[in-house]
TrEMBL record:
Keyword Transferase among record annotations: yes
Annotated organism of origin: Coffea arabica
Domain tRNA/rRNA methyltransferase SpoU type residue range list: 10-146
GO molecular function, one term: RNA methyltransferase activity
Pfam families: SpoU_methylase (PF00588)
Protein name: tRNA/rRNA methyltransferase SpoU type domain-containing protein
Key word NADP present: no
Source taxon at top rank: Eukaryota
GO BP term (any one): RNA processing
Segments for region (Disordered): 200-221
Record's keyword terms, sorted: Methyltransferase, Transferase
């Protein structure tokens, strides 16, 4: 389909605090046709929740936001911040012009000033109920990516029965050194994070103190 080849979507995330969120985010990226998931800063994450979708998704890593921005601009790609700002446009208005990378903010504090500086425009997700001030980052990403796919004219995936057909995994796969935590450790991590509400999805203060870069074989560079 012409539009599918013409436009691409990317997801951009910066200095992950909740590493296991990337697994569920990767699942949404594959469902909505994202070309690449770009990590900036920290790159150690857990594939928990991805249901194998990381095998069908391209990853890329940069050490700084400026390098990520340069990469995207070389591909004539806009950077869209998903944030409620004075000039943000409702995502259902589809204010897209070309291939777009979506930068998602902290569920508690939103995008930092540094992150906002690299954005070309902003979208927000209208809410119609009064019980919450924000959405989980993966839920927000899914809504925004779906709207972009509709605007870009992406082809709907073939269905079989009550599910969509999953493509075969690539025969040649790079080494994927996922953070090999157990389900129990993830549950415990989530419990501790709930007790410490200051931890958000992005956290500029988080230091990567892992003994090695856990995904050296996963990223294009």
């Amino acid at each position: 389909m012409e539009n599918e080849k013409r436009y691409e979507s990317y997801v951009l995330i910066h200095n992950i605090a909740k590493r296991h969120n990337v697994g569920t985010l990767a699942r949404s990226c594959t469902a909505f046709g994202v070309s690449e998931l770009i990590l900036v800063g920290r790159r150690d994450f857990n594939a928990f929740g991805s249901h194998g979708s990381t095998s069908h998704l391209n990853f890329r890593h940069f050490n700084s936001l400026s390098l990520a921005k340069s990469f995207l601009k070389e591909r004539d790609c806009d950077i869209c911040g998903v944030e409620i700002t004075d000039d943000a446009v409702a995502v259902n208005q589809h204010p897209f012009k070309r291939s777009t990378a979506f930068l998602l903010g902290n569920e508690g504090t939103g995008l930092s000033a540094k992150e906002c500086e690299i954005c070309d425009f902003f979208v927000y997700i209208p809410q119609y109920g009064c019980g919450t001030a924000s959405l989980n980052v993966t839920v927000a990403a899914s809504i925004v990516l779906h709207h972009f796919g509709v605007w870009a004219g992406f082809s709907e995936r073939t269905r079989e029965g009550n599910k969509f057909v999953v493509a075969e995994r690539p025969t040649k796969q790079e080494r994927k050194n996922y953070c090999a935590e157990t389900t129990e450790s993830i549950v415990e991590e989530r419990r501790l994070k709930r007790e410490n509400t200051s931890n958000g999805f992005f956290d500029e203060s988080v230091k990567d103190d892992s003994s090695s870069n856990l995904l050296d074989g996963l990223f294009d560079s």
